[in-house]
Write a structure and sequence with these properties.
The chain is α/β, with parallel strands linked by helices and 293 residues long. It folds into 2 domains: 63 residues, ATP synthase, gamma subunit, helix hairpin domain (Helix Hairpins, Orthogonal Bundle), CATH 1.10.287.80; 219 residues, ATP synthase, F1 complex, gamma subunit (Pyruvate Kinase, Chain: A, domain 1). It has a 5-stranded mixed sheet with strand order 3-2-1-4-5. Strand 2, helix 4 and strand 3 form a beta-alpha-beta unit. The chain is elongated. The chain starts with a helix and ends with a helix.
């Protein structure tokens, strides 16, 4: 049975843990606000860029570019976006399971033949897939400590170069899309080749524009911007989702610590009461023995 000193020590330890989890929740909340602002600021440009590109592709039927043209798939790359740190609930494991499910089911033939490669953004995904002996050819830990657009464009440039050279025939991104503090959505998005939208309701489709210098030149300029935007959005969403998951996990941990402290205090009081009762019984028994003698 635990002594009063042991219980008191446990209460002190849980209170210290509670202070840490509470502080981590506050830090995550502050960073989440900035991350949400970055998403809100980036979305209008990204949306308009995608609309303009899809409109141009719909009106310029003769356009041909290797970034758009479908071809026979021999080698696939999956970009897995996870976090560098834990303590964020099921954020990392959900994405890892999603990517592993793709590797073992939909793309199992490519995986078994060594034609499925992984680019791991974030330490947790890299650690897992390296340990499980998947074909990890790109590792990018520590980028979320100071997330920059240059990283996204650099990674897109590397993937695009290999795609154009025929080393990769398809590129997918697996990441957590931020919905709210308590909700993240696992997303699998195709980066290459660029998909052409079948949506004919684009408001731009009903307008006749004069293009300068020309449609093809504008499309060629928009294609890399579109790819950079997709990668950047994926990273921004993933980072915000990570902070939301950590905030939620630390809030739950703080509440659990509070409940544990309450339970330990109750146990401590019961043990202390039992100890006092035992001492009183010993004193009474000793007094009765003296009277009888």
């Amino acid at each position: 049975m635990a002594t009063l000193r042991d219980i008191k020590g446990r209460i002190k330890g849980v209170k210290s843990t509670q202070q840490i989890t509470k502080a981590m929740k506050m830090v995550a909340a502050a960073r989440l606000r900035r991350a949400q602002e970055n998403i809100v600021n980036a979305k209008p440009y990204i949306k308009k860029n995608a609309e303009m590109l899809q409109h141009l592709l719909s009106v310029e039927k003769s356009f041909n570019n290797p970034l758009i043209a479908e071809r026979e798939v021999h080698r696939i790359a999956i970009v897995v976006v996870t976090s560098d740190r834990g303590l964020c609930g099921g954020f990392n494991i959900n994405i890892i399971r999603k990517a592993e499910e793709l590797a073992n089911n939909e793309f199992s033939s490519y995986n078994n033949s060594g034609n499925l490669v992984f680019y791991c953004v974030g330490k947790k995904g890299n650690d897992y897939f390296t340990k499980k002996n998947y074909n990890v050819v790109g590792s990018y830990p520590g980028i979320f400590s100071q997330l920059r657009f240059e990283f996204a464009s650099g990674l897109v440039k590397e993937l695009t170069g290999k795609y154009v050279a025929g080393e990769i025939d398809k590129v997918l991104i697996v990441f957590n899309e931020f919905k709210s503090v308590i909700q993240q959505k696992n997303v699998v998005e195709q980066l290459l080749p660029i998909k052409q939208s079948d949506d004919n309701n684009n408001s731009l489709n009903n307008v006749d524009y004069i293009y300068e210098p020309g449609k093809i030149e504008i499309i060629n300029a928009l294609l890399p911007k579109n790819l950079n935007s997709k990668m950047w959005t994926s990273l921004l969403d993933s980072y915000a989702a990570e902070l939301g998951a950590r905030m939620s996990a630390m809030d739950m941990a703080t509440e659990n610590a509070k409940e544990l402290i309450r339970s330990l205090n109750l146990t401590y009081n019961k043990a202390r009461q039992a100890s006092i009762t035992k001492e009183i019984l010993e004193i009474v028994s000793g007094a009765n023995a003296l009277q009888e003698s």
